[in-house]
Amino acid sequence: MSHVKETTKKKKYSLQDRKAVKGTAERPRLSVFRSNKQIYAQLIDDIAGNTILAASTAAKDMESVKGKKAELAKATGKALAEKAIQAGIKVVVFDRSGYLYHGV
Q1: Which of 29, 71, 84, 100 has the smallest CB count inside 10 Å?
Q2: DSSP label of 101
Q3: Chain centre distance of CA 52
């Protein structure tokens, strides 16, 4: 019986991407998670190990936004960008978290 943990392709790609992408306070990592109903985005400082900003379709300020998944994702990105500009963050490193870089 093997005790080797089986990983999914998405997890494998996510770990490969994470090796190359590191976030700092000046240039945080933009991490995106998609569930079947919601989309979540956060800016992470990997050196300090904390989340600087976050936005999602599940947030109270996004309840009024309606539409398809792509429209909700665009609204979430816009909300996160506005928060980042207010916090003085202009450049981020995109972490695609194992997802393909297209679509939502």
Answers
A1: 100
A2: S
A3: 12
Question: Is residue 28 exposed (0-12), middle (13-18) or buried (19+ Cβ within 10 Å)?
Answer: buried
Q: Give pTM, 2 decimals.
A: 0.73
3-state secondary structure of 59: coil
Tokens of 86: 């207010």
d(CA 26, CA 23): 8
Q: Which residue has the higher pLDDT, 5 or 28?
A: 28
Strand partners, 53: 43
Quick one: pLDDT band at residue 1, thresholds 50, 70, 90? very low
* Contact indicator for 32, 99 with CB cutoff of 8 Å: yes
Find tokens 């936005």 and name the residue.
Answer: 55
Which two tokens mark 7? 């990983």
